[in-house]
């Protein structure tokens, strides 16, 4: 069984670590293949209605999360578009990308904080430890994202990842 995520905030950096009960190759694929991302990316009640991955340095990951849970009230039916631009890819080991809020065409949303995300994948006793470091341009940008519910959203997203990889 996957562990619970450990979250740490310092300055303008949001760090999250979790051990997944799955092989490193599978966990890396879950982060980089559109067909796998569609099964788990997004908080509970949200699903990927669009997901395109061009996995190469300079390539783009463009997606849309849509709230499909009526119990989430005013969020029901809402869409949240995002775009990642890959900076570094070491298969099975490391993934670095800049994460942006975007629109349906992939244009970066003005006034919304961008994040430099580094994901590291390490084998640990037959399981996979993932460390995510999200560095914001400013502490204000990080605080703004936290106020929008980023921590709860990413914790739920990684819980869904744990459930997905354990079923594979």
From TrEMBL:
TM helices/strands, residue ranges: none
Residue intervals of the Activator of Hsp90 ATPase homologue 1/2-like C-terminal domain: 21-166
Family note: Belongs to the AHA1 family.
Protein name: ATPase
